[in-house]
Amino acid sequence: VNSRVRGNGCPICSNEKSTSFPEQTILFYLSQVTETINRHKIDGYEIDIFLPIYNVGIEYNGRFYHRNRKNYDDKKKCYLQSKAINMISFFGNYSLLSDLLSMFPLLIHD
Length: 110
Prior knowledge:
By secondary structure, this protein is α+β, with helices and mostly antiparallel strands. The protein has helices at residues 2-5, 11-17, 21-31, 70-82, 96-103, and strands at 37-42, 45-51, 56-61, 86-91.
């Protein structure tokens, strides 16, 4: 439990599903209010969470896994944005709750 509280993730999720507890938390809550696709692939690039109605991709970049992947992550983000996909990235060293709450205005529509 302590590792999940610190944002290090669930060992079962990390080993079996190549995902993290914070990423699955984001997916769960967003799936309550809009259509979500987990692990959506576009031209070989995988988006952690894709919101097709909004054409938004969400990436949760955990500190450990993404510590040496900045060039790849930047290239991926640029490519996906060139395909008109708005990308939102969360980083493991920020408050997940405040980041998630800041995203909800994007989901409110008339």
